[in-house]
DNA sequence: ACCTATTCGAACTTTTTCGAACGTTTTTTT
DNA sequence: AAAAAAACGTTCGAAAAAGTTCGAATAGGT
């Protein structure tokens, strides 16, 4: 068995389960634990996972949008709050908006006024946030739960009949060359469905997401209309990202 | 099980519920309480939680579970609790169950153990209740919100491909002649879809629902396997409803 | 044949997990 | 409110599991 083939399978397993074990993998591939550790080391160098004792887990940054309950979120909370406040300026009463899953979009949801508004989302925490806001029309494409997001949607064509005005999109990594990336493949179909149906696409991401690439690219930067980030983005990066089709805006 | 995986789950539980218990976690993971305490110590060092006697609470200010939800229907709560406890006896690990929208089924959801189990629901409050229970596989047919329920038959054909073992059904009225009734027509399609796909149908309803008919009939009493109600149902009514195909059970 | 990358063995170190005895806090009983 | 009981926590240390380092054997490519 080729090392590259093992790596591929390890990553797939990681996507599905969120964590892998050295012992399990060594038995699965019929190689020594030593070899698996070397595999994991190489994958960690590439930033595709994070090593732990006994195995590895999806690396913190990349797993973040899938793990809205994890603490790393609150690390950049003030930045996310600033981004959310900024994004709110684009939301008017009677809009039809889609909120992608993530902690930044959750901050947007928290600040949505209880006014006539249609919100699409697959994020359970966002739904929870909107339960009390009775004037907001909530629309949920179904699915099964992976952590706090409903994914694996069988009825995405239903989504295609909806007319979304504004999409607030999240990503694990934003990179000049690789575009918008995520770590888990299941989210991609949903993001793409939202994107093809949205008239205006706002990508919300704190500065730590920039110049990073996760495993899978789901869109190029050109497909985004507005990139909303925080003041922490370096001037150098601002210069590089300002050039594209997307307008770059830094929330105060 | 990986230590890192435990930590992750502990944190998720902590933010969903506000607090965790050592004893509960040690049983959940099959490790000694000592190990859980060491886990909690490490997480506390990172500032991710605060230790208490017997467990830990979220490090932030909120020791209370986040409950910005609407005023629940607390009418006849003790009866509903009794019915829920009774209904739980029909739920085994690895079951695939559907929880119809309602306050009685919400009581069932609250009492579901965090064990391997697949739960279908359209009730937002039930979803919220299940957010912290990571071992429960949650499946949501989509829709748009009407109060706290997702309705809309767009994804009902998807539902027809699912194989539900047990359905816990609610109704506004239960009547010998008019069968199971509700006031709003939107819920009917969903209930019917659940019913055609369920092998066993349990109708949960407190005694005040009996001998009442709401506007719209969605099923006859013969389609139900078990009728679960509380002790408040009059003997006269018991005699009348016992005769049908459905078994009548009164929760204590 | 030479170089390089992969895989693994073996001795050694670290981390994790847990048992058991002994304090401490919380709850119940009197 | 004091005493007793139960539950929880701490310390020490040991056993098991996982990781590390070093170096050697193997296989592929040039």
Automatic annotation (TrEMBL), chains A, B:
PROSITE patterns linked: HTH_DEOR_2
Highest rank taxon of the organism: Bacteria
Keyword match DNA-binding: yes
Residue ranges occupied by any HTH deoR-type domain in the UniProt entry: 3-58
Swiss-Prot/TrEMBL keywords: DNA-binding, Transcription, Transcription regulation
UniProt cross-references to SUPFAM superfamilies, sorted A to Z: NagB/RpiA/CoA transferase-like (SSF100950), Winged helix' DNA-binding domain (SSF46785)
GO molecular function annotations of the record: DNA binding; DNA-binding transcription factor activity
Name of one Pfam family that matches: HTH_DeoR
Keyword GTP-binding recorded: no
This protein's name: DeoR/GlpR transcriptional regulator
Organism: Cohnella xylanilytica
């Amino acid at each position: 068995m080729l090392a590259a083939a093992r790596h591929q399978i390890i990553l797939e397993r990681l996507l599905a389960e969120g964590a892998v074990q050295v012992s399990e993998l060594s038995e699965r591939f019929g190689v020594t634990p030593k070899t698996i550790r070397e595999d994991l080391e190489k994958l960690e160098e590439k930033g595709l996972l994070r090593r732990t004792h006994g195995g590895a887990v999806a690396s913190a940054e990349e797993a973040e949008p899938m793990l809205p309950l994890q603490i790393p979120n609150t690390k950049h909370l003030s930045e996310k709050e600033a981004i959310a406040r900024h994004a709110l300026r684009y939301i008017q009463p009677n809009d039809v908006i889609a909120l992608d899953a993530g902690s930044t979009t959750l901050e947007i949801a928290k600040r949505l006024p209880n006014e006539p508004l249609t919100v699409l989302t697959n994020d359970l925490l966002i739904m929870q946030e909107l339960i009390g806001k009775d004037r907001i029309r909530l629309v949920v494409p179904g699915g099964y739960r992976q952590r706090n997001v409903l994914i694996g949607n069988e009825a995405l064509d239903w989504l295609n009949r909806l007319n979304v005005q504004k999409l607030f999109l999240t990503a694990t990594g934003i990179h000049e060359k690789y575009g918008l990336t995520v770590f888990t493949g299941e989210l991609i179909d949903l993001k793409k469905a939202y994107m093809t149906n949205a008239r205006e696409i706002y990508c919300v991401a704190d500065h730590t997401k920039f110049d990073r690439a996760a495993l899978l690219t789901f869109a190029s930067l050109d497909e985004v209309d507005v990139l909303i980030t925080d003041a922490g983005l370096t001037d150098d990066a601002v210069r590089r990202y300002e050039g594209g089709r997307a307008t770059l805006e830094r929330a105060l």
